[in-house]
Amino acid sequence: MKLLSSPLSPYVRKVRIAAAMKGLQGKIEMVPADTNPGDNVEINRANPLGKIPALVIDSATTIFDSHVICEYLDSLAPSPVLFPKGGLERFRTLTLGALADGMLDAALLLVYETRFRPEEKWHAPWQARQQGKIDRAIDQLELAPPAWSTSPDYGHLTLACALGYLDFRHDGRWRTGHPKLIAWLDRFAAAMPAFEATRPQV
Ligand SMILES: N[C@@H](CCC(=O)N[C@@H](CS)C(=O)NCC(=O)O)C(=O)O
Predict the structure, then answer these.
(1) Which atom of ligand 1 is nearest to the CA of 101?
(2) Closest ligand 1 atom, CA of 67?
(3) What tens digit of pLDDT does each residue of 13-68 get?
(4) What is the distance in A from the centroid of ligand 1 to the CA of 51?
(5) Pocket test for ligand 1, best of 8, 36, 44, 51 (most atoms within 8 A of CB)
(6) In whole angstroms, what is the distance from residue 106 CA to residue 152 CA?
(7) Per CATH, the architecture of 87-194 is what?
(8) Which protein residue's CA is at the shortest distance from atom 13 of ligand 1?
């Protein structure tokens, strides 16, 4: 399998950690893909949305997005279970994953605002709206950071990648006033060596 990827993408990081958890790293070749130009033919052919990660499984099958790829990897090996198979547990995991993906989407839009738009078009109310999504999520998570029993699941790994991205691109400002979530991320990093191994470096 080939993963269209960048070492700086938090969504790719999710997939790399999921692959490590499932013991599948050796089966996935990383293919560097730069999304910044917007007209990267290889990426746009793999995913018309022009986004990474995209996983090429065979000549007829490419899958995206990061959630779908993680669910696919989960189906290839029995343990640890990334997506509980049923019951409320499954929907708690999916909801935590959706919350963390939403934080990532807002954090990425804030980066893209200043990367892809000229300064005179930066719009402070819109930036504040995106920042509000992140801040509310962080405040809610601080009340009760999501525990795991035997091993972190997809929801936990997505949250860790979201916090890691806020550290990387938003100066770790989320940390102020959120000691329980900081301790939670430290626990995740200790349980999951792939988190440190995939830390983005510029
Ligand atoms: N929902 C997607 C989001 C992926 C995404 O936005 N990736 C960024 C890189 S970190 C990208 O490819 N951006 C290019 C663009 O939006 O044009 C996923 O979970 O895979």
Answers:
(1) 19
(2) 19
(3) 999 999 999 999 999 999 999 999 989 999 999 999 999 999 999 999 999 999 99
(4) 4
(5) 51
(6) 24
(7) Up-down Bundle (1.20)
(8) 51
Confirm if 77 and 24 have CB atoms less than 8 A apart: yes
| Residues 154-195 pLDDT 10s | 999 999 999 999 999 999 999 999 999 999 999 999 999 999
Burial classification of residue 176, based on how many CB atoms lie within 10 Å of its CB (0-12 exposed, 13-18 middle, 19 or more buried): exposed
The domain limits of the chain are 2-76, 87-194
Q: Whole-structure pTM over 0.85, yes or no?
A: yes
For residue 9, give the ligand 1 atom closest to its CA. Answer: 10
Q: Contact 53/4 with Cβ under 8 angstroms?
A: yes
Tell me which H or E stretch contains 62: strand 61-63
Homologous superfamily of 2-76:
Glutaredoxin (3.40.30.10)
Q: Which residues pair with 152 in a beta bridge?
A: none
Q: Distance (Å, rounded) from C-alpha 110 to C-alpha 115?
A: 9
Q: What are phi and psi of 3, to 5 degrees?
A: -110, 110
